[in-house]
Specification:
- The complex is a heterodimer.
- Chain A is mostly helical.
- Chain A is built from four helices and no strands.
- In chain A, helix 2 runs antiparallel to helix 3.
- The longest helix of chain A has 17 residues.
- Chain A starts with 8 loop residues before the first helix and ends with a helix.
- In chain A, about 30% of the residues are buried.
- The mean pLDDT of chain A is about 95.
- By secondary structure, chain B is mostly beta strands.
- Chain B is about 15% helix and about 40% strand.
- Chain B is built from seven helices and 27 strands.
- In chain B, strands 1-6-2-3-10-11 form a six-stranded mixed β-sheet.
- In chain B, strand 25 and strand 26 form a beta hairpin.
- The longest helix of chain B is centred in the first third of the chain and has 9 residues.
- Classes of the chains: A mainly alpha, B mainly beta.
């Protein structure tokens, strides 16, 4: 089961402090999009927004990305 | 009701019959071919090149058909102008996917290419499709177009979309096949977003890109490649003007992204065959780039087991170049 939206792991993934390896283009586009956003704006509000988006993404697509979810749960 | 037509290159009467039977279809064909189709549940775009079971081919009198499966809960055709394009992801079903076609060289094409990653719903709602074109000997003479079969309109400045809602036990899964990888050259950066560039920075130094390409004898058949967390994303060259010292691209470059020139690919057919592994159930939809068809001499050659239109740009969430896109509908 995925950590809930308030878990700090989502901020770590969103900011790239916890790297996520994937062969899935959709996941990699998300990670890249987060990276670009974080380079532009490191404010707490933006980090929170990115973390929420990352959580929503993996919640919605949980069935497609088991290898990435395993890294998140590690 | 199951679709009455299979996913392949079909004759115009076969497609007319499927539309009359009420099938929901995503279509690719010449303007002449698509103009002969009746109103119905379909959207399509102009293109005359296809990957078929027999290999790549040009055909102006046939239509590549992607039938929407019967298990889809809802299928809705819409079209979008530049002012409405930003809501395309929001209009997409919460659980499903959206198929789109964009006419090459138009404002909607440019807007989507430059701004899709900032649209609300980007990545959360899978958007897949392609950029429409014309036969290469008609570039600059004929206009690419899209068709909204629901309204019976031909559109040269708008994007046509088919929003498809899936049942809870199905999920859209996007994949891309890129036969290019970065060479070991220096990093290229751009300060502005755009399809038209002059200056860049190579290894941190300001350089005119057109001059750099000419002076170093770089083949513009090879794209620029950016690394998006392990996924290679291409930007292809349209034209280098050595007099104006400018470069036109088929997709925009973005500030903050590191690009490199691609390594040469000797045999495109073999490169695709290596990357495409057979799965039990093939993709629901696929398309491949016209530049791969032309530069790779893919006429009569196969791209693994994959079929679909050969296009002027591919869309997997965002605009791609020189890439094969595949959409799978997974059981979950």
């Amino acid at each position: 089961m995925l950590p809930d939206a308030s878990h700090p792991v989502w901020e770590l993934i969103a900011t790239g402090k916890r790297p996520l390896e994937s062969h899935k283009p959709t996941v990699n586009l998300l990670i890249h999009s987060n990276k670009m956003s974080y380079e532009r704006d490191q404010s707490p509000a933006n980090v929170q927004h990115m973390a929420a988006k990352t959580h929503s993404f993996f919640s919605h697509f949980e069935a497609l990305f088991p290898a990435e979810i395993a890294q998140i749960l590690r | 009701m199951p679709a009455t037509i299979s996913a392949t290159l079909q004759s115009i009467p076969e497609v007319q019959a499927a539309i009359a039977a009420g099938d929901s279809l995503f279509l690719a064909g010449s303007r002449n071919a698509l103009s002969q189709l009746p109103r119905g549940h379909w959207v399509g775009g102009t293109i005359s090149y296809f990957m078929t079971e027999e290999g790549g081919r040009q055909a102006d009198d046939r239509v590549f058909v992607t039938p929407i499966p019967a298990f889809a809960l809802d299928v809705r055709a819409e079209d979008y102008g530049p002012q409405e394009l930003a809501r395309i992801y929001r209009d997409a079903p919460a659980h499903g996917f959206t198929l789109i076609v964009l006419p090459a060289g138009t404002q909607v094409h440019r807007l989507f290419a430059e701004q899709a990653p900032s649209f609300d719903g980007f990545l959360m709602r899978p958007v897949v499709g392609w950029v429409t074109g014309v036969p290469v000997d008609r570039i600059g003479l004929d206009s690419p177009a899209v068709f909204n079969g629901g309204t019976g309109t031909v559109l040269e400045e708008r994007c046509a979309a088919l929003h498809v809602e899936l049942p809870p036990n199905k999920m859209a899964d996007l994949d891309i096949v890129n036969i290019f990888e970065s060479a070991d050259g220096q990093v290229i950066r751009f300060d502005q977003t755009g399809f038209h560039v002059a200056q860049c920075r190579i290894a941190g130094k300001p350089v005119n890109l057109a001059d750099y390409i000419s002076e170093n004898g770089i083949s513009t058949e090879l794209p620029l490649v950016a690394d998006y967390n392990g996924t290679s994303i291409n930007v292809s060259f349209q034209k280098v003007d050595p007099v104006a010292r400018t470069v036109d691209l088929f997709a925009p470059v973005f500030p903050g992204v590191e690009y490199r020139f691609a390594k040469p690919v000797e045999d495109y057919e073999a490169a695709f065959a290596r990357q495409i592994t057979a799965e039990g159930r093939g993709p629901f939809f696929s398309c491949n780039c016209i530049l791969n068809y032309l530069y790779g001499h893919l006429e009569g050659k196969k791209t693994g087991c994959i079929t679909g239109p050969i296009t002027f740009g591919e869309i997997a969430h965002q605009l791609l170049n020189q890439t094969m896109v595949r959409l799978y509908l997974r059981d979950i």
